[in-house]
UniProtKB/TrEMBL annotation, chains A, B, C, D:
PANTHER family: NAD(P)H-DEPENDENT FMN-CONTAINING OXIDOREDUCTASE YWQN-RELATED (PTHR43278:SF4). This is Flavodoxin family protein. The keyword Zinc does not apply. It comes from Terrilactibacillus tamarindi. The keyword Transmembrane helix does not apply. Residues 2-120 form the NADPH-dependent FMN reductase-like domain. Keywords: Flavoprotein, FMN. InterPro entries: Flavoprotein-like_sf (IPR029039), FMN_Rdtase-like_dom (IPR005025), ISF_SsuE-like (IPR051796). It comes from the Bacteria.
């Protein structure tokens, strides 16, 4: 299990959800705010094609491909994923054309989870974001196994969202059973 | 009229739509790929608050505030706006807390347009993105005046999307009448 | 608590969820398939206005207005609520103009829940339906307190959707605590 | 070309759009408010299966199957299609299991259009409805060729929605060219 965290601060509400979700679950954790991932330069239709970019993207995506279960964790910023996460996802277009990766085959049937927390009516205004993740995972043939939409603004708020906490515990139990 | 362009390549399909839309319309144009706009560091709940960041964001947002009509132009990347555009929008959270800007008052009733082109069924799979823009504009009290969802992948494709071209021409006429 | 059930068969999956959700909770239950609710005849802009219609709608809506918590239960048919439920909701337009009801004031801050089960990827393809309910409740000033999106096709399928069952149990506990 | 009209009043705004859209285009027209189409009784999982229902549905659906291009026209009521239209669509579940119809094969690659008008921010709050139509058409393998989302409440309002009028004219031209 690998967590890709698109939060731009530590100890946020998404983090709290992740702790509950991953209690006793062995996992790797990558925080995008500690990495450099440049916005994509769209070279799909240039003669040269994509050029190697010197940042941390390639090592992160290799890590993704080596794991069967991926949790994408992002705050809801302006009703979408964070720019940190979006830059990361946008670069998948580059990986799609990278013969060294076999990206689409590698993503096929991978189990994807999304954990996201927002302040403004996330349980409905966060739904376009969930739809986007569904389209994203469909495009690469991955399986969207589940999501947690939590409500919170100030650090700690999420603890008041008992439904989100409950779902995190539920998935935690499901993960534990998978491990046995 | 000010165009904020979140494309990561020049001469793309969105560009073609913009040319039709803006034919004979005086406007300013900012390409985010020629600017540096860092991802937000969320400091809303820290003691220090947001710190000034040395990049081009502040001058761009001042330009936005000085214009009555804003066109946000972005390719549909992975069913959302480009990371370049998302980084720009995410920074609005910083502007919301910047007493020198009067951001929310400045955005109130501003006329917003979105021009976006995607390759995979944009007229329906692009709808979550349109919803997000609606939520974004609602949040700051701006008015979502219209959008063009075009279909295209390779440069030039958009010319086959006669409906999108038609809508671009329609708005162009409407803009021209506003100017008279 | 009042349940309005838009299912067209008994013992379906939505019913199973409702049983878990309402265990030990006193409630009234109205099945729309046992009632007659005609499609609306839109008379908002006629000289005569809406005319009284001889069916069960008026008594049902009065019952709604007398309860603080309303559960709308519908299968997901063709990615939307059932026609039975839609006919019922459409008639709210008539109630909006019925001076004997004070409809909008009566709906204000009412607590609304939605329980819905579908067969084809309900957790994402059911999201447009959830958005519609949000818009509906917003329009009348009611509060969308929560929803359960379950997966099931054949009767009994829902028992395999452990997450939906879990959320139903969670709300059941929350309801029980409200009663104490 | 066949129009299925789910409006519950005549001379509404959707009607006005249809007149522009179909100017000089030979077509058949069925108004659901002049027909009887009962809500579905879900018998997918009963021993007996679906029983024949005495209403106008079967003749309408046969007409649909005989046409290559179908326009579904509905007001936006409460952010969804009208109950009249929903009852009609729900019955497709019955047709799916009707061996006399070959329904899914008959719907395959059929060209579908949606014309819909609403009063409350239809260009964004009508988008969940458009998504539902996309899912519906995808399910039966039909092709969602285009849609018009118009704004209007009182009869005649739609004439103020110059963009919708423009799109209707655009499709009209496209239809005329198809006929030549």
């Amino acid at each position: 299990m690998l967590v890709i965290d698109g939060n731009s601060r530590s100890n946020g509400n998404t983090q709290t959800l992740l702790h509950i979700l991953l209690d006793n679950i062995p996992h790797e954790y990558i925080s995008l705010r500690d990495k450099v991932v440049h916005p994509i330069i769209d070279a799909r239709h240039t003669d040269e094609g994509f050029q190697p970019i010197k940042d941390d993207y390639q090592s992160i995506i290799k890590n993704v491909l080596e794991n069967d279960m991926i949790i994408l964790s992002t705050p809801i910023y302006w009703y979408g994923m964070s720019g940190l996460m979006k830059n990361f996802i946008d670069r998948w277009s580059q990986s799609m054309r990278d013969p060294s990766l076999n990206f689409k085959q590698g993503m096929y049937k991978k189990k994807m989870y999304v954990v996201t927390v927002g302040g403004d009516e996330p349980k409905t205004k966060g739904l376009p974001l969930i739809m986007q993740f569904q389209y994203i995972f469909d495009f690469v043939g991955a399986s969207f196994e589940g999501y947690i939409l939590g409500k919170g603004n100030k650090p700690g708020d999420i603890l008041q969202d008992k439904k989100a906490i409950n779902i995190a515990k539920f998935y935690n139990q499901a993960f534990l059973q998978t491990l046995c």
